[in-house]
Design a protein that fits this description.
- With 396 residues, the protein is of the alpha/beta class.
- The strands form 2 sheets. A 7-stranded parallel beta sheet has the order 3-2-1-4-5-6-7, sandwiched between helices. Strands 10-9-8-11-12-13 form a 6-stranded parallel beta sheet, with helices on both faces.
- Helix 3 packs parallel to helix 4, helix 4 packs parallel to helix 5 and helix 8 packs across helix 13.
- The longest helix is centred in the first third of the chain and has 16 residues.
- The chain contains 16 helices and 13 strands.
Length: 396
């Protein structure tokens, strides 16, 4: 019985990769193939806690001790090397600077024993340091994994640079039993109730509150300007930004609020911490908005649309790539606040939103099922024994 060992690139940020791994783990469990998948995580990390206590996927989780992520990675490789070399190794976005040295030190053993190596790219894997890009390129050239990614956008950024070719694009999986369009069966989240009682439409952005100007800039600083355009037209909008701010003294949040103050929308611009209960927030707002022009992930799209909420986002990146399949009219083509406000207003006043959401939900069921995600990974890694027992029609 062959097993896929999965090693994540980080274990302490509860972002899109963690959710995607939980969906992959759930897919293996649901298709009765848990024995073919083992997800190695750092003991006592946020990821371990989430996967076991929140996602309920402890059946495929293996804790590996390690104070730092680099220590964990070395010990995870030692654990994998105890098993037959025919067992595939899946590296999940292992592209951070901290992992380059331990990754390089693992190459000789992995290649000598001819273990099948795969790498899931979830971002462009670019470094601010040109020497860092050269080093990363050399390491991946020697490692020579088979690559796959979360979008064609990500694939185009790494093909020819870190891998020869991305063999498969696996869109973010979503649990449609949990993310569903059934009405909220409880009160809305407490911190949204004053906004709902005051009237007006609520826009939600779920994104890490990072410094502007980065490779994957979330473009949060433009949001107060867009809100200013919307409300200047006589509308009544709230904008809620929900995400982790790991900057010292939450300086990024302070800058964002200051920008809202300068734009005259501070009273209608709300910043909240991240939450596991994102479903209730999706179901309480009118529209999800992402203004990141280079966003490789599209997870907020599939989650929100599965909950029956429209999503406005840039036509570029992974977000636009998903939206073009069922709602190209929801995409923004110009990086200007007035353009974004026009698309948001158009979507929220369109008579076609219901049919577009229905089309999106059909697309999600066909392309973003956790079980089909697991099935595709088994096909890629040639895990045949259990894969052959899976039903031909994969349920969501």
């Amino acid at each position: 019985m062959r097993t896929i060992f999965c090693v994540p690139g980080y274990c302490d940020n509860l972002g899109g990769m963690v959710i995607s791994l939980s969906m992959l783990a759930r897919g293996f469990i649901r298709c009765n193939a848990a024995e073919h998948f083992q997800l190695l995580v750092r003991t006592d990390s946020l990821m371990e806690d989430y996967l076991i206590n929140k996602a309920g996927t402890g059946a495929v989780v293996k804790g590996i001790p390690g104070g730092r992520q680099s220590d964990f990675f070395i010990r995870a490789m030692d654990y994998v090397n105890q098993f037959p070399s025919s067992y595939p190794l899946l590296l999940e976005n292992c592209v951070s600077r901290e992992l380059m040295k331990p990754l390089a030190s693992s190459i000789c053993h992995l290649r000598r024993h001819q273990r099948p190596i795969y790498h899931m790219f979830r971002d462009q894997a670019l470094s601010y340091n040109p020497l860092g890009n050269i080093a990363r390129r050399g390491i991946f050239y020697l490692l020579a994994p088979e690559g796959f990614s979360n979008s064609h956008y990500t694939a185009s950024a790494v093909e020819g640079r870190l891998v020869k070719k991305v063999s498969k694009v696996l869109y973010p999986a979503v649990d449609t039993d949990y993310f569903n369009s059934q009405p909220l069966n409880s009160l809305p989240p407490e911190n949204l109730r004053p906004l709902l009682l005051s009237g007006g439409k609520i826009l939600l952005t779920a994104a890490r509150i990072s410094s502007p100007g980065g490779v994957n800039d979330k473009n949060l600083m433009q949001m107060p300007e867009v809100l200013g355009y919307l409300n200047a037209a006589g509308n009544h909008y709230w904008w809620v930004v929900m995400g982790l701010d790991s900057s010292p003294e939450k300086r990024n949040t302070q800058r964002l609020i200051e920008k809202a103050r300068r734009c005259g929308v501070e009273e209608r611009f709300v910043v909240l911490p991240p939450t596991f209960n994102i479903v209730d927030y999706y179901k309480s707002v009118d529209c999800v908005v992402t203004l990141a022009p280079r966003e490789p992930f599209g997870r907020t799209v599939v989650e929100a649309v599965a909950c029956g909420v429209p999503v406005v986002g840039f036509a570029s990146g992974g977000v636009g790539e998903i939206l073009k399949n069922f709602a190209p009219a929801w995409t923004i083509h110009t990086n200007h606040p007035a353009a974004a406000s026009g698309v948001i207003s158009s979507v929220l006043h369109s008579i076609h939103v219901g049919s577009q959401i229905a089309a999106g939900q059909r697309w999600i069921r066909q392309n973003c099922s956790p079980v089909s995600y697991a099935h595709k990974l088994m096909e890629i890694t040639n895990i045949q024994s259990q894969a052959n027992q899976l039903p031909k029609k994969i349920a969501a």
